[in-house]
Design goal:
With 686 residues, the chain is mainly beta. 3% of the residues lie in helices and 47% in strands. Among the domains are: 129 residues, 7 Propeller (Methylamine Dehydrogenase, Chain H), CATH 2.130.10; 142 residues, 7 Propeller (Methylamine Dehydrogenase, Chain H), CATH 2.130.10. Strand 38 and strand 39 form a beta hairpin.
Length: 686
């Protein structure tokens, strides 16, 4: 490896890059949104040929960083979607981007940050097939070559945007793909552990490798001799060496395999990871391969001997992407850059294994909960790993990050309505996010006790909840912030008075409870629900169950203001409204045309006249918030902008702002008064 070049002044630097976050939080917003908090989880990273720029494809857009000064630019296409494919032209002047369920490929002028042209995919296909999985430029930059989910290899004229060549290869579903540096060869890997090489011009198959597939296990599965298909084979990462002569593959079998693409044979198997391998990358000289796993560990390997050179530790969650800085870069030449689900990109010296700096932050995955402060100046958001970020709502910049409750992944999180208290049941485990779609896979979380924290002071509040058990799967605070409720599956529900720390009630039933709680606004009623479990409604004052006999399982539940209506969401029956009275609960009305899927979120508008119903758009594969008129069941339109499932919806205390948190790693803030003014004039401002 060539000598590393970097300035001493940068060795101890940290680049939070918050000075540029204010403008970028307002770039590419959907209609009705006023700010975006967070940058989206990392899917891939690419350095420009001269190493002066780092492009990051996330679940919501493209972020381009100038390596010398850390300046960031956000690029959004106007078509909400993930960015899973990036390519620099060989002169570094143009960046091409595309991704999952996105109907366009965008070409960007990097000097101005403006769009050069938009290459549109066929309108005939459903959104899932309008997915670009990889991109590369020809050496003379006259052509852009793309591979999509329909297995079509397309050559585009960069100057005109016209299709020059269309090649279809035999459909062979894949989960990960990479392209050689010269653009001549694609490699794909699938769930069965197999790897294929394809000619990018003809679309023909060049070779196939059994890869990580277990031969005997696969045979037994095919013959029906196994109860379940073979596990732990899926290929999750692929990368070519710069000369294309070597291919690295990482798998759920926790190994890295190196393949000689000329001899069509395995070179060596690298063993040492204890979790799924989720990212791989070669150094520019091809002598070192880096691999990262779902357990937040990076390893460096000697390609020739297969020996392990170093283990790099510092990230706090799964490694999503790895790439080496080009050897001709003005700074950090030959260094390794790693992007993680913890939201950070870090630079490493591959010769010593030393971490050089945290280059940037803010790319955290999966927002699970949000809450507004009572004075309306800040918002707190909690990620899948228990990290809490506090945002300034005026500037859309992050103020502080609270990490005392951080864990590998969480079973349950909850904020009090004033965002002061944070409850969490975290645990040990591993998680890997899908680089070519939405969602991910997790193992765990392992046992972990309930923790209660004061976010404003950073202090843990000790109490009996810590000893209640290590398997809580749901948490909630009462509206008056005086009660903490925890669900323990088959062990029932427990609640504690936060002032006296005494147990208030312990409910049990014959079957397991769901993973969600819904309090009535007055805090007198509590509903529990979840997919494939029975819904229950309790009167907390009398500690009696008042569940209607005819109520079915609910994927989501919510009370309207005043507790007059209980909305019950079922994936087959749509939304059912129940009228709550002192004498009982009776069915009020239905919105049968609300095909809900399995979303576990429902929320009423502050005045109770509109129901907010998040779901997956059937044809566009976009995640929307459907608005329903509660009285008439009329469709009031949708809000769209998130690219993965919506986890939480919360209104500000002054009723003017809606916050939506998503698995895409962002929170969108919506001007509720403007949203409603365009839909129902009589409900304006509510």
């Amino acid at each position: 490896m060539k000598r590393l070049f970097f300035l001493v002044i940068f060795l101890n630097a940290v680049f939070p890059l918050t000075s540029f976050a204010q403008d970028n939080a307002k770039v590419g917003l959907p209609e009705g949104a006023i700010a975006r908090l967070g940058k989206g989880g990392i899917n891939l990273m690419r350095f420009s040929p001269d190493g002066a720029r780092l492009a990051v494809g996330t679940d919501v857009g493209v972020w381009v960083y100038d390596v010398p000064d850390g300046k960031e630019t956000a690029l959004f296409t106007g078509h909400p979607g993930q960015v899973n494919a990036l390519a620099f032209s060989t002169d570094g002047k143009i960046l091409a981007s595309g991704g999952f369920a996105t109907p366009v490929i965008q070409l960007w002028d990097l000097e101005t940050g403006s769009k050069l042209s938009t290459l549109k995919l066929s309108e005939r296909y459903k959104a899932i097939y309008k997915s670009i999985t990889t991109l590369t430029f020809s050496e003379d930059n006259t052509r852009l070559i793309s591979l999509d989910k329909l297995d079509k290899i397309t050559h585009w004229d960069v100057a005109t945007g016209k299709r020059l060549v269309n090649r279809s290869r035999k459909v062979n579903f894949y989960d990960v793909v990479t392209v050689s540096q010269d653009g001549t060869t694609f490699a794909t890997g699938n769930q069965q552990g197999k790897i294929y090489l394809w000619d990018s011009t003809t679309g023909g198959q060049l070779a196939s490798f059994r890869g990580h597939a277990q031969l005997w296990a696969s045979v037994k599965s095919i013959l029906g001799w196994a109860d379940q298909p073979p596990q732990g084979e899926e290929v999750r990462a692929l990368a070519f060496s710069s000369d294309g002569k070597m291919l690295a593959s990482g798998s759920e079998d926790k190994t890295v395999q190196l393949w000689d693409t000329e001899k069509r044979a395995k070179h060596v198997t690298l063993k040492g990871h204890k979790e799924w391998v989720t990212a791989v990358a070669f150094s520019a000289d091809g002598k070192t391969v880096a691999s990262g796993d779902a357990g937040k560990v990076i390893k460096l390997w000697d390609v020739l001997t297969g020996g392990e050179r170093a283990t790099l530790s510092g990230h706090k969650s799964a490694i999503n992407a790895l790439t080496f800085v080009p050897d001709n870069a003005p700074l950090y030449a030959g260094c390794l850059a790693s992007g993680s689900a913890d939201g950070t990109i870090r630079f490493w010296n591959p010769n010593t294994g030393q971490e050089l700096l945290t280059f940037t932050m803010g790319h955290t995955e999966w927002v699970k909960a949000v809450a507004f402060s009572e004075n309306g100046t800040t918002l707190a958001s909690a990620a899948f790993n228990g990290t809490v970020e506090v945002w300034d709502l005026k500037t859309a910049q992050e103020l502080t990050t609270f990490t005392e409750a951080e864990s590998d992944l969480t079973a349950a999180v909850a904020f009090s309505q004033d965002a002061k208290h944070f409850a969490i049941r975290g645990g040990s485990g591993a998680i890997a996010f899908d680089p070519l779609g939405f969602g991910g896979s997790a193992s765990g979380p392992g046992p972990g006790n309930i923790q209660l924290w004061d976010v404003t002071t950073g202090e843990q509040i000790l109490g009996p909840w810590q000893d209640a058990g290590d398997n809580a799967n749901a948490l909630a605070f009462s509206p008056d912030k005086k009660i903490l409720v925890a669900g323990f599956g088959r062990q029932g529900i427990q609640a504690w008075d936060l002032n006296t720390q005494l147990e208030l009630f312990h409910f049990n039933t014959a079957e397991p409870f769901g993973r969600q709680f819904a309090f009535s606004p007055t805090g007198t009623l509590l509903a529990t629900n979840g997919t494939h479990v029975q819904t229950h409604v309790w009167d907390i004052a009398t500690q009696t169950e008042i569940t209607p006999p005819s109520i079915q399982e609910a994927s989501a539940a919510a009370f309207s203001s005043g507790g007059i209506l209980l909305a019950h969401g079922h994936h087959r029956d749509g939304v059912v409204f129940w009228h709550v009275t002192p004498t009982g609960i009776k069915e009020h009305s239905r919105i049968p045309k609300s095909q809900r899927g399995f979303s576990d979120v429902l929320t009423f508008s502050p005045n109770g006249k509109i129901l907010l119903d998040p779901k997956l758009g059937t044809w566009r594969l976009n995640f929307i918030i459907q608005l329903w008129d509660v009285d008439t069941g009329a469709d009031l339109g949708t809000l769209s902008g998130h690219t993965e499932g919506i986890e939480t919806l919360v209104f500000s205390h002054d009723r003017k702002t809606l916050a939506s948190g998503s698995k895409d790693g962002t929170v969108l803030l919506w001007d509720w008064e403007k949203v409603i003014a365009k839909r129902t004039p009589e409900n304006k401002g509510n």
